[in-house]
Amino acid sequence: METNDCVSREKVAYMITNEKYANENYEQFIDRLIKKLGDLPSVNPTRKVGEWLVEEGDRNHYGYSPLCYCSNCKDYYTLYCREMNYCPNCGAKMKTKSEREE
What we know:
Elements: H1 9-18, H2 26-39, E1 49-50, E2 52-54, E3 67-70, E4 76-78, E5 93-94, H3 97-101
Parallel strand pairs: 1-5
Antiparallel strand pairs: 2-3, 3-4
């Protein structure tokens, strides 16, 4: 079984924990689970997208606000976060400057 699709972890866990191990050896049980896994519907994962927003207010001696925050989860970071491509809190992919201008 060589496929590269995604399935729900919740459905896989439910399937495994509710499957009965009866009158078969371990290999038969695993083979049956693998076949059932192939019957689960595929899911299309979606990536959260956000952008770094600068906190308006106090400015440091360079004229920059010392904080920015993720537009997706609203978690605050130092201004250097704008160099990160992903939010470390929620995992959202941050839009680049060119994507924001489109």
